[in-house]
From TrEMBL:
<feature type="transmembrane region" description="Helical">
    <location>
        <begin position="162"/>
        <end position="181"/>
    </location>
</feature>
<feature type="transmembrane region" description="Helical">
    <location>
        <begin position="391"/>
        <end position="411"/>
    </location>
</feature>
<dbReference type="GO" id="GO:0015179">
    <property type="term" value="F:L-amino acid transmembrane transporter activity"/>
</dbReference>
<comment type="similarity">
    <text>Belongs to the amino acid/polyamine transporter 2 family.</text>
</comment>
<feature type="region of interest" description="Disordered">
    <location>
        <begin position="1"/>
        <end position="26"/>
    </location>
</feature>
<keyword id="KW-0472">Membrane</keyword>
<dbReference type="GO" id="GO:0016020">
    <property type="term" value="C:membrane"/>
</dbReference>
<feature type="transmembrane region" description="Helical">
    <location>
        <begin position="318"/>
        <end position="337"/>
    </location>
</feature>
<dbReference type="Pfam" id="PF01490">
    <property type="entry name" value="Aa_trans"/>
</dbReference>
<dbReference type="InterPro" id="IPR013057">
    <property type="entry name" value="AA_transpt_TM"/>
</dbReference>
<protein>
    <submittedName>
        <fullName>Neutral amino acid transporter</fullName>
    </submittedName>
</protein>
<feature type="transmembrane region" description="Helical">
    <location>
        <begin position="358"/>
        <end position="379"/>
    </location>
</feature>
<feature type="transmembrane region" description="Helical">
    <location>
        <begin position="423"/>
        <end position="448"/>
    </location>
</feature>
<feature type="transmembrane region" description="Helical">
    <location>
        <begin position="240"/>
        <end position="264"/>
    </location>
</feature>
<feature type="transmembrane region" description="Helical">
    <location>
        <begin position="54"/>
        <end position="75"/>
    </location>
</feature>
<feature type="transmembrane region" description="Helical">
    <location>
        <begin position="276"/>
        <end position="298"/>
    </location>
</feature>
<feature type="transmembrane region" description="Helical">
    <location>
        <begin position="87"/>
        <end position="108"/>
    </location>
</feature>
Amino acid sequence: MTDVEKNLNDYPSSGSMETQTVPVPEGGKYDIDDADHDAVFGVRKEGAVNYRSMGWIQATIVMLKTIIALGVLAMPTVLSATGGVPGSLIILIIGLITTWTGHVVGLFKKNHPEVYSMDGVGYILGGKWGREFFTVAYPMFMIFLSGSGFVAISIAFNAVTAYATCTVAWVVVAMVGTFALASIQTLSKVSILGWIGFVSVMAAILIITISVGIQDRPSAAPQTGPWDKNIAAVNHEGTFLGGMGAVSTVVFSYSGTPAFFNVVGEMRKPRDYDRSLYWCQSIVTATYLTIGIVVYYYCGQYLANPALGSAGTIIKKVAYAIALPGLFVSVTIYTHVGAKMIFVRVLRGSEHLTAHTFTHWAVWLGTVAGCVTISFILAEAIPFFGDLVNLIGATLGTLMCMIACGWMWLHDNLPRRRSDKSLYYRILVVLNVAIVIAGFFIVITGTWSAVVSIRNSYSTGLITSPFSCADNSNSS
C-alpha cells in the first residue's frame, strides 16, 4: 500500500476508521497539478462543484486579502513601541520567516496531496490526537481573526456615521454581511471580492499615508504651539513586554499562512503556488514597511490604533468608508477558509462534498453560520482592537504560521539527516528548529504581554463591559 493510499484510508471524514471513497489513480500516486483527479475532492464530475478552479493571479489576491487589512492598521504602533529601526527589522524578519513557512506549506502539500487544511497536517504530524487538535485550533484561529475583523468594522461604521447607533448593531451588520459573502462556495469566486477588497484597503492606506504627510500635525497632537512627535530610531523607554507585544502584532499581521493550504488546494495548477506566494509576501512587506514608517514618522506619539484615525475627523471618515469593503472581504475569507476545513472534514469521501445535494448545502451553510455566530460573540465579549491583535498573534497565530510550519519541514526532511551532509541541508535544519523554538518563545512572552495589557485596560476603565453599546472609534 502506498503512503497516499494509507493516509487516505486512515483519514476519515467524521472520525471513524472506515476507508474513504476517494479513488487513487493508477500507480497509487497523485499529481497535485492534475485537476481531474484530486486526493481531497475526488474525480471531477460534470455538474459538480469544481473547487480546483483558481489561477495564480486569483490565488495571489486571495492570499493578499488573507494577510493584508487588519494587520496593516497596527503597523505604526509597532514602530512606536520599539523605535523606527527595531520595528522595521521586526517587520522585515517576520516577513522573511513567513515567506519561508509559506513555501513549506507548498512543499508539504506536494508531499502529502491528501492534505487540504491544518487538520490533515495535524494527522500527519501527531496522528488522531493531532488531527483533532487542529480540527479545533484552526477554525478557532480563523474565528478569532473574524472576531477582530468585526471589531474593526464596528469602529469603521462608528467613525463614518459619527456613532449613529449602538456598536453591537454594527457588529450584527458585520456578522450578517460576512455570512452572505462567506457562503460563496469556492475560493476562485471569492477572489472576485478579493480584488475589490484589495483596492479598497490600499486606497484607504494611501489616503492616510498622504494625509499625515501633508498635514501640519496629527489630529491628536496639540493644535497650537510647539509639539514633540517623540520619534526615535530606538525606543530606549520601551519595555520587554511592550517589545514582545509588538512582535506578536507583526506575527498576527502575517498569520494568514496556514490558510495557504486552502489556496494551493483549490488552484488549477498548484505548481504556480510559489509565484503567488512571493508576489503576495513582497507586496505585503512593502506595504507594512511603508505605512509603518511614514505614519510613525509624521505622527510619532500621537498615533491612533488602528492607524486610519490618525489624520483628523474628515480624513478618518473618508478612509474608513473606503476601507469598509476591504474589511468585509478579509473577514469573509477568514470565515470561508475556517468553515471550509470543517465542511471538508465532515463530508470528505462522500458524494455530498461536491454534489449539489441538500446535505451539501445544509452542512456548508450551517458551518458558515456557526463560525460567524462564534465570531460575533468573541467580538463583543472582547471589544477592543489592539489587545485582541496581540493575543491572537501570540497564541494561535504563532502556533499556526511558525511552530506548525517548522515542524512540518522537520517531519518531512529530518529523516534524511544521515544521508545528506550538505551545508545547505544543515542550515535548513537549524533554520526550522530555530523557527519552532522562537515560536514557543513568542507564544509565552506575547501571551504574557497581551494578558497584562488586557488587565490594565480593565483596571483603568478603558473597557466598560462586554456587549457594550459605547462608541469604540473615539481613540481611533
